[in-house]
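User: I'm curious whether this sequence folds into something compact or stays loose and floppy. Could you predict its structure so I can see for myself?
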Amino acid sequence: MANEVASRSAPVRSVPVWDPYVRLFHWLLVIGMAAAWWTGKSGPMDLHYKLGLIVLFLVIFRLLWGLVGSPTARFAHFLKGPSAVFSYMRTMALPKPSFSFGHNAGGGVMVAVLLIVVLIQDASGLFNTDDVLFEGPFYNAVPESFSRLMGFIHAQFFNLVLVLVALHVAVIALYLVWKRENLVRAMVTGRARLPEPVARAAEANGETRFASPFRALACAAVAAAVPIAIYYLG
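Assistant: Here's the prediction. I'll summarize afterward.
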């Protein structure tokens, strides 16, 4: 795996980091969550429900892609132990780029937490009701006390999502202004400018080669089967 931190004075060059499927997931999730928030506040609830199923598809796809996808997409690539996370956090205040190939140790934790929270928030809506026109597909399949609990989780976990998103944006701004590292550009273009030693190590380890689109299609098919089954059978 490429070194996490490299000298600022080393020559840099552009290398592939994020495959199209990770980038598409990222931006579709942003749009999907924003649209779900708006419909949840102002309706219509039927559209809110459908958007929730789309978000569920996206999260399931990302979980599968984290197991079998491109190197930087895999959980094994960016989920580190506590010592690595704390070690990285100590470097955040330094006014220089981190030059991580993919998610750094702290960013990896943020990705994992966001996926878990969004999944819980989304799944809880399947047991929810607005007490007027909408009932989730599993609302009548569970005791009323459980559905009330799911309703509470559905509301509160979205507040947690907003906090995590705000923290995510703040860290991105910190990197751009203080550390002079544009993380958004890499998530748009799929490429990052990294020091030559980091780039060479990533290439030597095969980390710059993206997984097959057929593998992505298979993951998408499996992920889509869940919300489709819920919509038609739930």
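Summary: The radius of gyration is 20 Å. Residues 127 and 143 are 10 Å apart (CA to CA).
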